[in-house]
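seq:
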Amino acid sequence: MLKLGYKASAEQFGPRELLDFSCLAEEVGFDSVFVSDHFQPWKHTDGHAPSALAWLGALAARTRRVRIGTSVLTPTFRYHPSIVAQVFGTLGVMAPGRVVLGVGTGESLNEVPSSGVEWPGPKERRDRLRESIRLINKLWTEDRVTFEGQFYRTERATIYDRHYEKVPIWVAASGPLAAQMAGQIAEGFICTSGKNPQLYIDLTSKVEEGAAKANRDAKTIERMIEVKVSFDSDAQQAKELTRHWAALALSPEEKTGVEDPVEMERLADALPLDRAASRWIVSSDPDFQVEKIRPYVELGFRHLVFHAPGPDQARFLKLYAAEVLPRLRKAFG
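struct:
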């Protein structure tokens, strides 16, 4: 079954605004709401970074139907895995069957300024993520957990408030080794749109490869993709709206090691509009939106979470729900 969600951009809006937008998303027919977990935004001017953990509790209380979760949280530096297990155990009780813990290896923009940690290489970040997932799962299924890992320890730890149905963990990946990890140990896989089409073929293949190595059925692993869309009745306006998120068009080489939102903003502002818009499906035509989304669905992504760049999120939600969501459901079931 196709699921169509809303990406709540915690880097762009304050917590009350974001909560109102997310409740509206449920009201107009979206199936899920996923929130980013940033300590710092991509830009300093008019930036925001409300706590995703506190905010999700409010979202759980204010909604009744939508699936909710992080896309994504890093359970390895700012947060000890046992704290993540406690928070999402509580959320699972508050909104049973609706909560997802989406995790990733993290970005220095969030982890270094908040903790002063020396930012490690990709292998250590993957190893930390794998170990943290193992510990979180133990805490959700066992009592009095004493854990001696390479990076994390607990001593007779128990999560007292947790739902009998374990919160699923979905792993975000932009590279092959993390995608393989998702196939091996996670209930879901997350990635983002707007990159080289071959990347998505490679990533989904690695998810399947990881599942096979772990003797798992890859079809049971949910595939979610954040789809970056700028949709407006005015096509030029749709393009202009992408300027706020120009940082997403920076290459990994351009932004690696940039931990200051002021500097990130400077780099992003220097990009021409065409490049700023390059990660987005930009149009005023709902059928164009459907056709550009089609390749992701054909690769097996059945959970599409839409990220819109503009300040008037209420307008986007109503317009997209009226003009695009019905077409997607008709085209892809």
